[in-house]
Amino acid sequence: MGKFELEVAPPSAELLEIAKQELRETPEVRAAAVEELRKLLEAATDLNYHNDEEFLIIFLRPTKFYPESALKLMRSIAEFNKNYKETLFNLMPSDVQNVFVEHNIVNILTNRDQNGRRLMFVNMGEVWDPKAVSEEQVFRVLYTIHKLAMLEPATQINGVVVIYDFKGMGMKQVKAMSPGGAKRLLTFIQEASPLRVKGIHFINQPMLFSMVWTLFKPFVKEKLNKRMFFHGDKLSKLHEHVHKEYLPSNYGGSLPALDYGGKDWYPVAEQHLEFIKKWNSCGFK
Questions:
Q1: How far is CA 224 from CA 10, 142, 199, 255, in A?
Q2: For 1, what's the count of Cα atoms within 13 Å in the CB-facing half-sphere?
Q3: Which is the most buried residue in 14, 233, 254, 261, by most CB within 10 A?
Q4: Are the beta carbons of 174 and 207 closer than 8 angstroms?
Q5: Quick one: which H or E segment has residue 202?
Q6: What is the CA radius of gyration of the chain?
Q7: How far is CA 96 from CA 91, 106, 125, 134, 144, in A?
Q8: Strands across the sheet with 160-165, in order?
């Protein structure tokens, strides 16, 4: 297991209270929403989704248990997967294993932050060698991670925080990014992911970052824009959102420096292949 494992146990009473306050989740609302979503799915003859309760909750939690909104999300996901079929069709962890194991582009902290949110770091600066790992491969890794995150009730309820680190970014990284790649990533985050993205933070971005931001800015909608924060090298600004006590010393935090990465937690992905196959089978018929 290394140092990382998914928290797939049923939500605690404390978590359920948060879900009640933020997502309208009660046993009665949940039961009614699941039943209604099953009916809507049955009527949506062009969609193919599993209808067991645990699976449907993945779509109902981010849409606050409104079945019509959940169905709309499912349709958006199906559309996204169709549009990017060449990148995502039947994507399994083994297809991106080398990126996890041999490169340190993406890292998930073993701990959550002060609000119980999952923390993901994406290294898009000098750590990223575009000759070894393409922009598309980075996205395939992020998509694989999101499949695993969906399995965690705590992550479904509390959401995720993503921190993009651009330390040491040069022209080779800038040139490796494309408008098409920016559109794909932001369409995914805003329209085709059931995860609640609570914050996206940019740190250590150099002057060159303005060139990168011109790729992304046209695709950022108002809701996400309010959750994007640009800190530069002022990590104290990051700490206003993610407290120091929950960050490693690499990022000005109180926790020990990171000594683990993708190679340590990749084995967890191999333990949940059945769910990943289940997810891969969903979409348009």
A1: 29, 18, 8, 29
A2: 6
A3: 261
A4: no
A5: strand 197-203
A6: 19
A7: 9, 12, 20, 11, 8
A8: 106-108, 118-123, 160-165, 197-203, 228-232
Q: 197 near 224, Cβ under 8 Å?
A: yes
Residue type, 246: Y
Residues 218 and 192 sit within 8 Å (Cβ to Cβ): no
Q: Which amino acid is at 251?
A: Y
Q: Are strands 47-48 and 283-284 parallel, antiparallel or unpaired?
A: antiparallel
The single-letter code of the amino acid at 262 is G
Gap between the Cα atoms of 152 and 157, Å rounded: 9
Cβ(54)–Cβ(9) below 8 Å = no
pLDDT of amino acid 1: 38
Token pair of 166 as six digits:
């651009």
Query: How many whole angstroms from its chain centre is CA 30?
Result: 24
Buried b or exposed e, range 86-102, using 16+ CB within 10 angstroms? eebeebebeebbebbee
Burial of 153 (0-12, 13-18, 19+ CB in 10 A): buried
Give the torsion through C-alpha atoms of 244, 248, 252, 254, to 10 deg: 50
Which amino acid appears at position 105 of this protein? I
Global pTM reads 0.96
CA distances from 222 to 165, 181, 192, 227 (A): 23, 20, 16, 9
pLDDT at 168 > cutoff 80: yes
Q: How far apart are CA 156 and CA 153, in angstroms?
A: 5
Here the tokens at position 142 are 């992020």
Q: What token pair was written down for 52?
A: 């067991």
Biggest alpha carbon–alpha carbon distance for the chain? 55
CA-CA-CA-CA torsion for 259, 114, 162, 58, nearest 10 degrees? Answer: 110
pLDDT single digits (tens) 77-114: 999 999 999 999 999 999 999 999 999 999 999 999 99
